[in-house]
Amino acid sequence: MRPSNDVPFDLKTDNGSDLGGDRQATDTRSPTEQLAAWVEHLGQRLAQRDVDGTLELFADDCHWRDLVLFSWNLITLEGKADIRDMLESRLEATRPDNWKLEGEASLTDGVLEGWISLETDVARGKGYVRLKDGLCWTLLTTMRELKGHEEPLGRRRPLGAEHGHGLADKRNWLEKRRDEEAALGITEQPYCLVIGGGQGGLGLGARLKRLGVPTLIVDKAERPGDQWRGRYKSLCLHDPVWYDHMPYLPFPDHWPIFTPKDQIGDWLEMYAKVMELNYWAKTECVKASFDEAEGRWTVEVLRDGKPMTLKPSQLILATGMSGVPNVPVYPGAETFAGQQHHSSQHPGGDAWRGKRAVVIGANNSAHDICADLVENGADVTMVQRSSTHIVRSDTLMDVVFGPLYSEDAVESGLTTDKADMLFASIPYKVLPQFHRQAFEQVKERDKAFYDRLAAAGFMLDFGDDESGLFLKYVRRGSGYYIDVGACELIADGTIKLKSGPGLGVDHIEPDAVVLNDGSRLPADLIVYATGYGSMNGWAARLISQDVADKVGRCWGLGSGTTKDPGPYEGELRNMWKPTQQQNLWFHGGNLHQSRHYSLYLALQLKARFEGLDTSVYKLAPSYHQG
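^ thats the sequence. predicted structure below, dont judge the formating
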Protein backbone atom coordinates (compact mmCIF):
# COMPACT_ATOMS: atom_id res chain seq x y z
CA MET A 1 0.00 0.00 0.00
CA ARG A 2 1.30 3.44 -0.88
CA PRO A 3 1.61 6.21 1.74
CA SER A 4 -1.47 8.32 2.27
CA ASN A 5 -0.07 11.38 0.50
CA ASP A 6 0.91 9.45 -2.60
CA VAL A 7 -0.62 9.90 -6.04
CA PRO A 8 -1.64 7.20 -8.51
CA PHE A 9 1.65 7.19 -10.40
CA ASP A 10 5.35 7.10 -9.54
CA LEU A 11 7.19 10.43 -9.37
CA LYS A 12 9.66 9.65 -12.10
CA THR A 13 10.16 11.00 -15.60
CA ASP A 14 9.25 9.00 -18.69
CA ASN A 15 12.76 7.52 -18.87
CA GLY A 16 12.56 6.36 -15.26
CA SER A 17 15.07 8.81 -13.77
CA ASP A 18 14.35 10.53 -10.46
CA LEU A 19 12.92 14.03 -10.71
CA GLY A 20 14.69 15.21 -7.60
CA GLY A 21 18.32 16.26 -7.19
CA ASP A 22 20.89 15.53 -4.52
CA ARG A 23 20.39 18.51 -2.21
CA GLN A 24 17.50 16.98 -0.27
CA ALA A 25 19.21 13.60 -0.06
CA THR A 26 22.27 15.14 1.65
CA ASP A 27 20.32 17.44 3.98
CA THR A 28 20.64 16.14 7.53
CA ARG A 29 17.28 17.56 8.58
CA SER A 30 14.17 15.40 8.48
CA PRO A 31 11.84 15.79 5.47
CA THR A 32 9.35 17.60 7.71
CA GLU A 33 12.00 20.05 8.94
CA GLN A 34 13.17 20.70 5.39
CA LEU A 35 9.70 21.41 4.03
CA ALA A 36 8.64 23.43 7.08
CA ALA A 37 11.68 25.67 6.57
CA TRP A 38 10.82 26.19 2.90
CA VAL A 39 7.21 27.07 3.73
CA GLU A 40 8.38 29.49 6.42
CA HIS A 41 10.76 31.20 3.98
CA LEU A 42 8.00 31.49 1.40
CA GLY A 43 5.67 33.11 3.92
CA GLN A 44 8.35 35.53 5.09
CA ARG A 45 9.28 36.69 1.60
CA LEU A 46 5.68 37.14 0.56
CA ALA A 47 4.98 39.11 3.76
CA GLN A 48 7.91 41.36 2.84
CA ARG A 49 6.48 41.71 -0.70
CA ASP A 50 9.84 40.42 -1.91
CA VAL A 51 8.90 38.98 -5.29
CA ASP A 52 12.50 38.39 -6.41
CA GLY A 53 13.27 36.57 -3.16
CA THR A 54 10.10 34.52 -3.50
CA LEU A 55 11.05 33.40 -7.00
CA GLU A 56 14.40 32.19 -5.70
CA LEU A 57 12.44 29.46 -3.89
CA PHE A 58 11.04 28.10 -7.19
CA ALA A 59 12.72 25.86 -9.74
CA ASP A 60 12.93 26.99 -13.35
CA ASP A 61 10.44 24.24 -14.18
CA CYS A 62 7.69 25.25 -11.76
CA HIS A 63 3.90 25.20 -11.73
CA TRP A 64 1.59 27.04 -9.33
CA ARG A 65 -2.05 26.01 -9.55
CA ASP A 66 -4.40 28.42 -7.79
CA LEU A 67 -8.04 27.61 -7.23
CA VAL A 68 -9.68 30.97 -6.36
CA LEU A 69 -7.50 31.88 -3.36
CA PHE A 70 -5.16 34.39 -5.05
CA SER A 71 -6.86 34.88 -8.41
CA TRP A 72 -10.65 34.64 -7.97
CA ASN A 73 -10.19 32.30 -10.88
CA LEU A 74 -8.96 28.80 -11.66
CA ILE A 75 -5.50 29.21 -13.15
CA THR A 76 -2.17 27.44 -13.48
CA LEU A 77 0.95 29.59 -13.56
CA GLU A 78 3.78 27.92 -15.46
CA GLY A 79 7.28 29.22 -14.95
CA LYS A 80 8.72 32.07 -12.94
CA ALA A 81 7.53 34.78 -15.32
CA ASP A 82 3.89 33.75 -14.84
CA ILE A 83 4.33 33.59 -11.07
CA ARG A 84 5.97 37.02 -11.00
CA ASP A 85 3.13 38.55 -12.97
CA MET A 86 0.50 37.10 -10.63
CA LEU A 87 2.32 38.13 -7.46
CA GLU A 88 2.92 41.67 -8.68
CA SER A 89 -0.75 41.93 -9.57
CA ARG A 90 -2.34 40.17 -6.59
CA LEU A 91 0.03 40.20 -3.64
CA GLU A 92 -1.09 43.50 -2.16
CA ALA A 93 -4.78 42.69 -2.68
CA THR A 94 -4.63 39.24 -1.10
CA ARG A 95 -2.02 39.79 1.67
CA PRO A 96 -1.18 36.09 2.17
CA ASP A 97 -0.10 35.19 5.68
CA ASN A 98 0.18 32.44 8.25
CA TRP A 99 1.78 29.86 5.93
CA LYS A 100 2.22 26.55 7.76
CA LEU A 101 3.19 23.00 7.03
CA GLU A 102 0.37 20.68 8.10
CA GLY A 103 1.37 17.23 9.33
CA GLU A 104 4.43 15.29 8.24
CA ALA A 105 6.28 15.72 4.95
CA SER A 106 7.51 12.81 2.85
CA LEU A 107 10.58 12.37 0.68
CA THR A 108 10.26 9.80 -2.12
CA ASP A 109 12.39 9.47 -5.25
CA GLY A 110 13.90 12.88 -4.67
CA VAL A 111 10.56 14.69 -4.31
CA LEU A 112 9.80 16.36 -0.97
CA GLU A 113 6.09 16.99 -0.50
CA GLY A 114 3.42 17.85 2.02
CA TRP A 115 0.27 19.72 3.01
CA ILE A 116 0.17 23.43 3.75
CA SER A 117 -2.32 25.94 5.13
CA LEU A 118 -2.43 29.70 4.71
CA GLU A 119 -4.71 32.72 4.88
CA THR A 120 -5.41 35.74 2.75
CA ASP A 121 -7.14 38.96 3.70
CA VAL A 122 -10.59 37.44 3.13
CA ALA A 123 -10.16 33.67 3.12
CA ARG A 124 -8.53 30.59 4.57
CA GLY A 125 -6.81 28.16 2.28
CA LYS A 126 -5.11 24.82 2.00
CA GLY A 127 -2.60 23.50 -0.44
CA TYR A 128 0.03 20.99 -1.39
CA VAL A 129 3.64 21.55 -2.36
CA ARG A 130 6.36 19.45 -4.00
CA LEU A 131 10.05 20.35 -4.01
CA LYS A 132 12.84 19.00 -6.18
CA ASP A 133 16.39 19.72 -5.11
CA GLY A 134 15.10 22.14 -2.47
CA LEU A 135 13.09 24.27 -4.91
CA CYS A 136 9.39 24.32 -5.64
CA TRP A 137 8.28 22.17 -8.55
CA THR A 138 4.48 22.20 -8.02
CA LEU A 139 2.36 24.30 -5.68
CA LEU A 140 -1.39 24.06 -5.18
CA THR A 141 -3.30 26.78 -3.31
CA THR A 142 -7.06 26.55 -2.82
CA MET A 143 -9.68 28.67 -1.11
CA ARG A 144 -11.52 26.66 1.54
CA GLU A 145 -13.68 29.22 3.33
CA LEU A 146 -14.40 32.93 3.49
CA LYS A 147 -13.63 34.70 6.74
CA GLY A 148 -16.83 35.75 8.45
CA HIS A 149 -18.90 33.58 6.10
CA GLU A 150 -17.97 30.09 7.27
CA GLU A 151 -20.35 27.17 6.81
CA PRO A 152 -22.50 26.41 9.89
CA LEU A 153 -20.84 23.11 10.68
CA GLY A 154 -19.40 21.46 13.77
CA ARG A 155 -19.48 23.91 16.65
CA ARG A 156 -21.28 26.42 14.42
CA ARG A 157 -24.19 24.09 13.63
CA PRO A 158 -27.70 25.49 14.28
CA LEU A 159 -29.42 24.67 17.55
CA GLY A 160 -32.60 23.42 15.84
CA ALA A 161 -34.87 23.57 18.87
CA GLU A 162 -36.17 26.99 19.89
CA HIS A 163 -36.24 26.86 23.70
CA GLY A 164 -38.23 29.30 25.80
CA HIS A 165 -41.53 31.14 25.52
CA GLY A 166 -42.76 34.27 23.82
CA LEU A 167 -40.66 33.79 20.69
CA ALA A 168 -41.29 36.28 17.91
CA ASP A 169 -41.20 33.51 15.29
CA LYS A 170 -43.33 30.61 16.47
CA ARG A 171 -42.98 28.52 13.31
CA ASN A 172 -41.43 25.09 13.60
CA TRP A 173 -38.89 23.67 11.12
CA LEU A 174 -41.52 22.24 8.77
CA GLU A 175 -43.45 25.51 8.61
CA LYS A 176 -40.29 27.49 7.91
CA ARG A 177 -39.27 25.04 5.20
CA ARG A 178 -42.67 25.20 3.52
CA ASP A 179 -42.67 28.99 3.65
CA GLU A 180 -39.22 29.09 2.07
CA GLU A 181 -40.30 26.77 -0.74
CA ALA A 182 -43.44 28.82 -1.34
CA ALA A 183 -41.56 32.13 -1.50
CA LEU A 184 -38.38 31.49 -3.49
CA GLY A 185 -38.98 32.22 -7.14
CA ILE A 186 -42.49 33.54 -6.42
CA THR A 187 -42.38 36.46 -3.99
CA GLU A 188 -38.60 36.40 -3.49
CA GLN A 189 -36.07 36.07 -6.31
CA PRO A 190 -33.14 33.66 -6.02
CA TYR A 191 -29.64 35.09 -6.15
CA CYS A 192 -28.51 31.98 -8.04
CA LEU A 193 -30.52 30.04 -10.60
CA VAL A 194 -29.06 26.61 -11.36
CA ILE A 195 -30.32 25.08 -14.58
CA GLY A 196 -29.94 21.33 -14.32
CA GLY A 197 -30.90 19.18 -11.35
CA GLY A 198 -28.58 16.23 -11.78
CA GLN A 199 -25.65 15.47 -9.51
CA GLY A 200 -23.84 18.68 -10.54
CA GLY A 201 -26.72 21.03 -9.85
CA LEU A 202 -27.66 19.29 -6.61
CA GLY A 203 -24.12 19.27 -5.25
CA LEU A 204 -23.62 22.94 -6.05
CA GLY A 205 -27.05 23.73 -4.61
CA ALA A 206 -26.11 21.98 -1.37
CA ARG A 207 -22.94 24.03 -1.02
CA LEU A 208 -24.77 27.29 -1.72
CA LYS A 209 -27.48 26.33 0.76
CA ARG A 210 -24.86 25.80 3.46
CA LEU A 211 -23.36 29.19 2.63
CA GLY A 212 -26.70 30.97 2.91
CA VAL A 213 -27.00 31.95 -0.76
CA PRO A 214 -30.65 31.92 -1.96
CA THR A 215 -30.57 29.34 -4.75
CA LEU A 216 -33.20 27.74 -6.93
CA ILE A 217 -32.55 24.60 -8.99
CA VAL A 218 -34.77 23.89 -11.99
CA ASP A 219 -35.00 20.79 -14.15
CA LYS A 220 -37.50 19.51 -16.68
CA ALA A 221 -37.47 16.02 -15.11
CA GLU A 222 -40.46 14.81 -13.11
CA ARG A 223 -38.32 14.09 -10.03
CA PRO A 224 -34.71 14.53 -8.95
CA GLY A 225 -32.77 11.53 -10.23
CA ASP A 226 -34.88 11.01 -13.35
CA GLN A 227 -31.86 12.17 -15.36
CA TRP A 228 -30.47 8.70 -14.53
CA ARG A 229 -33.68 6.68 -14.28
CA GLY A 230 -34.60 7.53 -17.86
CA ARG A 231 -31.42 6.09 -19.40
CA TYR A 232 -31.00 2.60 -20.84
CA LYS A 233 -31.74 -0.29 -18.49
CA SER A 234 -28.22 -1.68 -18.04
CA LEU A 235 -26.51 1.63 -17.25
CA CYS A 236 -24.27 1.74 -14.17
CA LEU A 237 -21.64 4.25 -13.12
CA HIS A 238 -18.31 3.31 -14.67
CA ASP A 239 -16.33 5.02 -11.91
CA PRO A 240 -16.01 3.34 -8.50
CA VAL A 241 -18.00 4.43 -5.45
CA TRP A 242 -15.02 6.01 -3.67
CA TYR A 243 -14.65 8.41 -6.61
CA ASP A 244 -18.35 9.31 -6.79
CA HIS A 245 -19.43 10.67 -3.39
CA MET A 246 -21.64 13.76 -3.26
CA PRO A 247 -20.68 16.80 -1.12
CA TYR A 248 -21.42 16.35 2.60
CA LEU A 249 -23.22 12.99 2.27
CA PRO A 250 -20.94 10.13 1.21
CA PHE A 251 -22.52 6.88 0.11
CA PRO A 252 -22.87 4.36 2.98
CA ASP A 253 -20.13 1.74 3.30
CA HIS A 254 -22.31 -1.07 1.92
CA TRP A 255 -22.96 0.84 -1.34
CA PRO A 256 -22.04 -1.10 -4.53
CA ILE A 257 -18.75 -0.27 -6.22
CA PHE A 258 -20.53 0.55 -9.49
CA THR A 259 -23.90 2.15 -8.79
CA PRO A 260 -26.87 1.12 -10.99
CA LYS A 261 -28.65 4.05 -12.62
CA ASP A 262 -31.92 3.72 -10.69
CA GLN A 263 -30.08 3.48 -7.40
CA ILE A 264 -28.13 6.68 -8.07
CA GLY A 265 -31.43 8.26 -9.14
CA ASP A 266 -33.00 7.40 -5.78
CA TRP A 267 -29.93 8.70 -3.95
CA LEU A 268 -30.15 12.05 -5.76
CA GLU A 269 -33.84 12.37 -4.93
CA MET A 270 -33.09 11.67 -1.27
CA TYR A 271 -30.17 14.12 -1.39
CA ALA A 272 -32.34 16.97 -2.63
CA LYS A 273 -34.79 16.33 0.21
CA VAL A 274 -32.30 15.88 3.05
CA MET A 275 -30.13 18.82 2.00
CA GLU A 276 -33.27 21.03 1.95
CA LEU A 277 -32.70 22.17 -1.61
CA ASN A 278 -35.15 24.43 -3.39
CA TYR A 279 -35.86 22.37 -6.49
CA TRP A 280 -38.47 22.96 -9.17
CA ALA A 281 -39.19 19.76 -11.07
CA LYS A 282 -41.09 19.71 -14.38
CA THR A 283 -39.61 23.13 -15.16
CA GLU A 284 -38.18 23.95 -18.57
CA CYS A 285 -36.12 27.05 -19.29
CA VAL A 286 -37.33 28.76 -22.44
CA LYS A 287 -35.29 31.95 -22.73
CA ALA A 288 -32.76 34.01 -20.78
CA SER A 289 -31.29 37.47 -21.22
CA PHE A 290 -28.91 39.57 -19.14
CA ASP A 291 -29.47 43.22 -18.20
CA GLU A 292 -26.01 44.79 -18.00
CA ALA A 293 -27.31 47.85 -16.15
CA GLU A 294 -29.20 45.89 -13.49
CA GLY A 295 -26.67 43.05 -13.32
CA ARG A 296 -29.52 40.53 -13.38
CA TRP A 297 -30.90 37.86 -15.65
CA THR A 298 -34.45 37.54 -16.88
CA VAL A 299 -35.24 33.86 -17.31
CA GLU A 300 -38.51 32.66 -18.81
CA VAL A 301 -39.53 29.19 -17.64
CA LEU A 302 -42.46 26.83 -17.96
CA ARG A 303 -43.20 25.33 -14.55
CA ASP A 304 -45.51 22.38 -15.00
CA GLY A 305 -46.72 24.09 -18.17
CA LYS A 306 -47.28 27.49 -16.54
CA PRO A 307 -45.19 30.45 -17.84
CA MET A 308 -43.17 32.19 -15.13
CA THR A 309 -40.35 34.75 -15.01
CA LEU A 310 -37.34 34.54 -12.72
CA LYS A 311 -34.85 37.35 -12.01
CA PRO A 312 -31.63 35.83 -10.63
CA SER A 313 -28.33 37.66 -10.40
CA GLN A 314 -26.24 34.60 -11.27
CA LEU A 315 -27.08 31.97 -13.87
CA ILE A 316 -25.36 28.58 -13.65
CA LEU A 317 -25.69 26.01 -16.44
CA ALA A 318 -25.26 22.67 -14.68
CA THR A 319 -26.28 20.50 -17.59
CA GLY A 320 -23.32 18.13 -17.37
CA MET A 321 -19.96 18.34 -19.14
CA SER A 322 -21.69 17.71 -22.47
CA GLY A 323 -23.70 20.07 -24.60
CA VAL A 324 -26.49 19.47 -27.04
CA PRO A 325 -26.48 15.92 -28.49
CA ASN A 326 -24.68 15.58 -31.83
CA VAL A 327 -27.26 14.01 -34.14
CA PRO A 328 -25.78 13.50 -37.61
CA VAL A 329 -27.91 14.18 -40.66
CA TYR A 330 -27.38 11.46 -43.25
CA PRO A 331 -28.93 11.36 -46.72
CA GLY A 332 -32.02 9.18 -46.73
CA ALA A 333 -32.50 9.18 -42.93
CA GLU A 334 -36.04 10.45 -43.40
CA THR A 335 -36.89 7.29 -45.40
CA PHE A 336 -35.82 4.84 -42.67
CA ALA A 337 -38.73 2.58 -41.78
CA GLY A 338 -37.48 1.53 -38.36
CA GLN A 339 -36.56 3.58 -35.28
CA GLN A 340 -33.57 5.90 -35.04
CA HIS A 341 -32.47 8.01 -32.08
CA HIS A 342 -29.48 9.48 -30.27
CA SER A 343 -27.95 7.39 -27.49
CA SER A 344 -29.22 9.92 -24.92
CA GLN A 345 -32.76 8.89 -25.88
CA HIS A 346 -32.16 5.12 -25.91
CA PRO A 347 -34.48 3.44 -23.37
CA GLY A 348 -32.93 -0.04 -23.44
CA GLY A 349 -32.86 -3.19 -25.52
CA ASP A 350 -36.01 -4.93 -24.24
CA ALA A 351 -38.08 -4.29 -27.37
CA TRP A 352 -35.46 -5.47 -29.88
CA ARG A 353 -35.28 -9.23 -29.46
CA GLY A 354 -34.80 -10.82 -32.88
CA LYS A 355 -34.29 -7.42 -34.52
CA ARG A 356 -31.27 -5.90 -36.27
CA ALA A 357 -29.55 -2.92 -34.70
CA VAL A 358 -26.76 -0.68 -35.98
CA VAL A 359 -24.96 1.51 -33.46
CA ILE A 360 -22.94 4.38 -34.93
CA GLY A 361 -20.04 5.08 -32.58
CA ALA A 362 -17.57 3.15 -30.44
CA ASN A 363 -17.21 4.95 -27.12
CA ASN A 364 -18.82 4.46 -23.67
CA SER A 365 -22.47 4.71 -24.63
CA ALA A 366 -22.02 2.72 -27.83
CA HIS A 367 -20.45 -0.20 -25.97
CA ASP A 368 -23.05 -0.19 -23.21
CA ILE A 369 -25.93 -0.03 -25.68
CA CYS A 370 -24.48 -2.75 -27.92
CA ALA A 371 -24.03 -5.06 -24.93
CA ASP A 372 -27.54 -4.33 -23.70
CA LEU A 373 -29.06 -5.04 -27.13
CA VAL A 374 -27.15 -8.32 -27.43
CA GLU A 375 -28.27 -9.37 -23.95
CA ASN A 376 -31.84 -8.80 -25.11
CA GLY A 377 -31.45 -10.99 -28.19
CA ALA A 378 -30.83 -8.39 -30.89
CA ASP A 379 -28.41 -8.79 -33.82
CA VAL A 380 -26.00 -5.87 -33.31
CA THR A 381 -23.35 -4.19 -35.46
CA MET A 382 -21.09 -1.46 -34.09
CA VAL A 383 -19.70 1.05 -36.60
CA GLN A 384 -16.32 2.36 -35.46
CA ARG A 385 -15.18 5.41 -37.43
CA SER A 386 -12.00 6.26 -35.50
CA SER A 387 -9.83 4.66 -32.83
CA THR A 388 -11.01 4.33 -29.23
CA HIS A 389 -9.10 4.20 -25.97
CA ILE A 390 -10.14 1.13 -23.97
CA VAL A 391 -9.21 0.35 -20.38
CA ARG A 392 -10.60 -2.52 -18.36
CA SER A 393 -12.48 -1.41 -15.25
CA ASP A 394 -10.58 -3.74 -12.91
CA THR A 395 -7.23 -2.54 -14.22
CA LEU A 396 -8.24 1.09 -14.01
CA MET A 397 -9.20 0.64 -10.36
CA ASP A 398 -6.00 -1.17 -9.47
CA VAL A 399 -3.45 0.88 -11.38
CA VAL A 400 -4.94 4.38 -11.61
CA PHE A 401 -7.76 4.89 -9.09
CA GLY A 402 -6.54 2.59 -6.34
CA PRO A 403 -4.01 4.76 -4.50
CA LEU A 404 -6.54 7.59 -4.06
CA TYR A 405 -10.03 6.13 -4.47
CA SER A 406 -10.35 2.59 -3.11
CA GLU A 407 -10.95 0.61 0.06
CA ASP A 408 -7.17 0.49 0.56
CA ALA A 409 -7.03 4.28 0.43
CA VAL A 410 -9.88 4.58 2.93
CA GLU A 411 -8.21 2.12 5.31
CA SER A 412 -4.95 4.06 5.09
CA GLY A 413 -6.78 7.15 6.37
CA LEU A 414 -7.04 9.02 3.09
CA THR A 415 -10.24 11.07 3.12
CA THR A 416 -12.18 11.91 -0.03
CA ASP A 417 -11.29 15.57 0.41
CA LYS A 418 -7.57 14.84 0.65
CA ALA A 419 -7.77 12.50 -2.33
CA ASP A 420 -9.45 15.26 -4.35
CA MET A 421 -6.79 17.75 -3.30
CA LEU A 422 -3.95 15.38 -4.20
CA PHE A 423 -5.48 14.75 -7.59
CA ALA A 424 -5.85 18.51 -8.12
CA SER A 425 -2.29 19.16 -6.99
CA ILE A 426 -0.80 17.81 -10.22
CA PRO A 427 -0.99 20.53 -12.90
CA TYR A 428 -2.42 19.47 -16.25
CA LYS A 429 0.90 20.26 -17.96
CA VAL A 430 2.67 17.74 -15.74
CA LEU A 431 -0.07 15.11 -15.73
CA PRO A 432 0.82 13.32 -19.01
CA GLN A 433 4.24 12.22 -17.77
CA PHE A 434 2.60 10.59 -14.74
CA HIS A 435 -0.13 8.90 -16.72
CA ARG A 436 2.09 7.57 -19.50
CA GLN A 437 3.85 5.45 -16.92
CA ALA A 438 0.58 4.23 -15.45
CA PHE A 439 -0.81 3.26 -18.83
CA GLU A 440 2.36 1.44 -19.79
CA GLN A 441 1.51 -0.81 -16.84
CA VAL A 442 -2.05 -1.10 -18.17
CA LYS A 443 -0.80 -2.17 -21.62
CA GLU A 444 1.52 -4.77 -20.16
CA ARG A 445 -1.01 -6.17 -17.72
CA ASP A 446 -3.78 -6.54 -20.32
CA LYS A 447 -1.73 -7.33 -23.44
CA ALA A 448 -3.72 -10.47 -24.28
CA PHE A 449 -6.98 -8.52 -23.95
CA TYR A 450 -5.81 -5.82 -26.36
CA ASP A 451 -4.45 -8.40 -28.79
CA ARG A 452 -7.89 -10.07 -28.98
CA LEU A 453 -9.60 -6.76 -29.66
CA ALA A 454 -7.09 -5.84 -32.36
CA ALA A 455 -7.51 -9.25 -33.98
CA ALA A 456 -11.25 -8.55 -34.22
CA GLY A 457 -10.45 -5.36 -36.16
CA PHE A 458 -11.07 -2.90 -33.34
CA MET A 459 -8.98 0.27 -33.64
CA LEU A 460 -7.24 1.08 -30.35
CA ASP A 461 -5.34 4.07 -29.02
CA PHE A 462 -4.01 5.42 -25.73
CA GLY A 463 -4.37 9.08 -26.67
CA ASP A 464 -2.20 11.15 -28.99
CA ASP A 465 0.68 11.08 -26.49
CA GLU A 466 -0.06 7.66 -24.93
CA SER A 467 -1.25 9.31 -21.69
CA GLY A 468 -4.49 7.33 -21.47
CA LEU A 469 -7.97 7.85 -20.13
CA PHE A 470 -8.05 10.92 -17.90
CA LEU A 471 -6.09 13.15 -20.27
CA LYS A 472 -8.35 12.14 -23.15
CA TYR A 473 -11.33 12.90 -20.95
CA VAL A 474 -10.24 16.41 -19.94
CA ARG A 475 -8.94 17.28 -23.40
CA ARG A 476 -11.96 16.24 -25.44
CA GLY A 477 -14.50 14.42 -23.24
CA SER A 478 -14.83 11.56 -25.72
CA GLY A 479 -12.99 8.75 -27.47
CA TYR A 480 -12.83 6.16 -24.68
CA TYR A 481 -14.61 3.25 -23.03
CA ILE A 482 -14.14 1.83 -19.54
CA ASP A 483 -14.72 -1.84 -20.26
CA VAL A 484 -17.24 -3.63 -18.09
CA GLY A 485 -17.73 -6.56 -20.44
CA ALA A 486 -18.69 -5.33 -23.91
CA CYS A 487 -15.17 -5.73 -25.31
CA GLU A 488 -15.22 -9.51 -24.90
CA LEU A 489 -18.43 -9.54 -26.95
CA ILE A 490 -16.59 -7.69 -29.72
CA ALA A 491 -13.54 -9.91 -29.47
CA ASP A 492 -15.60 -13.11 -29.81
CA GLY A 493 -17.81 -11.70 -32.58
CA THR A 494 -21.07 -11.57 -30.61
CA ILE A 495 -21.15 -7.84 -31.31
CA LYS A 496 -20.38 -7.48 -35.01
CA LEU A 497 -17.89 -4.79 -35.92
CA LYS A 498 -17.35 -2.58 -38.94
CA SER A 499 -14.30 -0.41 -38.46
CA GLY A 500 -11.66 1.45 -40.40
CA PRO A 501 -10.00 4.87 -40.61
CA GLY A 502 -12.33 7.25 -42.37
CA LEU A 503 -15.22 4.83 -42.30
CA GLY A 504 -18.57 6.56 -42.21
CA VAL A 505 -22.20 6.48 -43.24
CA ASP A 506 -22.80 7.21 -46.92
CA HIS A 507 -26.58 7.12 -46.76
CA ILE A 508 -29.54 5.43 -45.13
CA GLU A 509 -32.11 3.29 -46.90
CA PRO A 510 -35.55 2.29 -45.58
CA ASP A 511 -34.14 -0.92 -44.08
CA ALA A 512 -30.36 -0.44 -43.93
CA VAL A 513 -27.34 1.72 -43.21
CA VAL A 514 -24.96 1.96 -46.17
CA LEU A 515 -21.33 2.81 -45.35
CA ASN A 516 -18.86 4.69 -47.52
CA ASP A 517 -16.93 1.47 -48.20
CA GLY A 518 -20.04 0.04 -49.88
CA SER A 519 -21.08 -2.16 -46.95
CA ARG A 520 -24.82 -2.47 -46.43
CA LEU A 521 -25.98 -3.13 -42.85
CA PRO A 522 -29.65 -4.22 -42.59
CA ALA A 523 -31.31 -2.46 -39.66
CA ASP A 524 -34.56 -2.16 -37.74
CA LEU A 525 -32.94 0.23 -35.23
CA ILE A 526 -30.23 2.86 -35.62
CA VAL A 527 -28.64 4.36 -32.50
CA TYR A 528 -26.46 7.42 -32.97
CA ALA A 529 -23.86 7.15 -30.20
CA THR A 530 -22.23 10.21 -31.69
CA GLY A 531 -21.55 12.28 -28.60
CA TYR A 532 -22.33 15.86 -27.68
CA GLY A 533 -21.29 19.38 -28.53
CA SER A 534 -19.65 21.91 -26.23
CA MET A 535 -21.62 23.07 -23.17
CA ASN A 536 -21.89 26.53 -24.70
CA GLY A 537 -24.43 24.96 -27.06
CA TRP A 538 -26.88 25.21 -24.17
CA ALA A 539 -26.02 28.91 -23.86
CA ALA A 540 -26.75 29.35 -27.57
CA ARG A 541 -30.08 27.59 -27.23
CA LEU A 542 -31.18 29.31 -24.01
CA ILE A 543 -29.63 32.78 -24.36
CA SER A 544 -28.22 33.53 -27.83
CA GLN A 545 -25.54 32.49 -30.26
CA ASP A 546 -23.83 35.82 -29.60
CA VAL A 547 -23.46 34.98 -25.89
CA ALA A 548 -22.29 31.45 -26.72
CA ASP A 549 -19.65 32.92 -29.03
CA LYS A 550 -18.69 35.49 -26.39
CA VAL A 551 -18.02 32.66 -23.96
CA GLY A 552 -16.40 30.33 -26.48
CA ARG A 553 -15.69 26.65 -26.17
CA CYS A 554 -16.29 24.89 -22.85
CA TRP A 555 -14.10 21.99 -21.74
CA GLY A 556 -10.68 21.06 -23.10
CA LEU A 557 -7.22 22.35 -22.23
CA GLY A 558 -6.10 23.64 -25.60
CA SER A 559 -3.48 20.89 -25.74
CA GLY A 560 -3.35 20.77 -29.54
CA THR A 561 -4.23 17.08 -29.49
CA THR A 562 -7.13 15.58 -31.45
CA LYS A 563 -10.38 17.51 -30.83
CA ASP A 564 -8.66 19.82 -28.32
CA PRO A 565 -7.42 22.73 -30.44
CA GLY A 566 -5.02 25.28 -28.97
CA PRO A 567 -3.94 27.66 -27.67
CA TYR A 568 -2.98 25.98 -24.42
CA GLU A 569 -4.71 27.36 -21.33
CA GLY A 570 -3.67 25.08 -18.47
CA GLU A 571 -7.19 24.72 -17.06
CA LEU A 572 -10.49 23.44 -18.39
CA ARG A 573 -12.05 26.15 -20.50
CA ASN A 574 -14.89 28.09 -18.85
CA MET A 575 -15.57 25.47 -16.18
CA TRP A 576 -16.34 26.53 -12.57
CA LYS A 577 -14.86 30.00 -13.10
CA PRO A 578 -15.81 33.43 -14.47
CA THR A 579 -16.53 33.60 -18.19
CA GLN A 580 -16.53 36.43 -20.72
CA GLN A 581 -20.28 36.75 -20.10
CA GLN A 582 -20.84 38.50 -16.79
CA ASN A 583 -22.72 36.39 -14.21
CA LEU A 584 -22.83 33.26 -16.41
CA TRP A 585 -21.19 30.08 -15.11
CA PHE A 586 -20.74 26.49 -16.25
CA HIS A 587 -20.72 23.54 -13.86
CA GLY A 588 -20.34 19.89 -14.82
CA GLY A 589 -18.02 16.94 -15.19
CA ASN A 590 -18.08 13.54 -13.57
CA LEU A 591 -19.17 13.05 -9.96
CA HIS A 592 -15.64 13.58 -8.66
CA GLN A 593 -15.22 16.88 -10.51
CA SER A 594 -18.72 18.06 -9.64
CA ARG A 595 -18.06 17.34 -5.96
CA HIS A 596 -14.65 18.97 -5.74
CA TYR A 597 -15.00 21.99 -8.00
CA SER A 598 -18.47 22.88 -6.74
CA LEU A 599 -16.70 24.16 -3.61
CA TYR A 600 -14.71 26.75 -5.58
CA LEU A 601 -17.70 27.79 -7.66
CA ALA A 602 -19.85 28.15 -4.53
CA LEU A 603 -17.22 30.32 -2.82
CA GLN A 604 -17.00 32.60 -5.86
CA LEU A 605 -20.78 33.00 -5.87
CA LYS A 606 -20.95 33.54 -2.10
CA ALA A 607 -18.31 36.26 -2.30
CA ARG A 608 -20.32 38.09 -4.95
CA PHE A 609 -23.50 37.66 -2.92
CA GLU A 610 -21.78 39.32 0.04
CA GLY A 611 -20.40 42.15 -2.09
CA LEU A 612 -16.72 41.26 -1.65
CA ASP A 613 -14.09 42.48 -4.10
CA THR A 614 -13.71 39.59 -6.54
CA SER A 615 -11.46 41.19 -9.15
CA VAL A 616 -10.53 38.35 -11.46
CA TYR A 617 -6.91 37.76 -12.38
CA LYS A 618 -6.50 36.80 -16.05
CA LEU A 619 -10.07 36.19 -17.14
CA ALA A 620 -9.72 33.59 -19.89
CA PRO A 621 -10.28 34.85 -23.45
CA SER A 622 -12.83 33.27 -25.75
CA TYR A 623 -11.73 30.62 -28.24
CA HIS A 624 -13.41 28.49 -30.91
CA GLN A 625 -16.74 30.20 -31.37
CA GLY A 626 -19.79 28.85 -33.14
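The first helix runs from residue 23 to 26.
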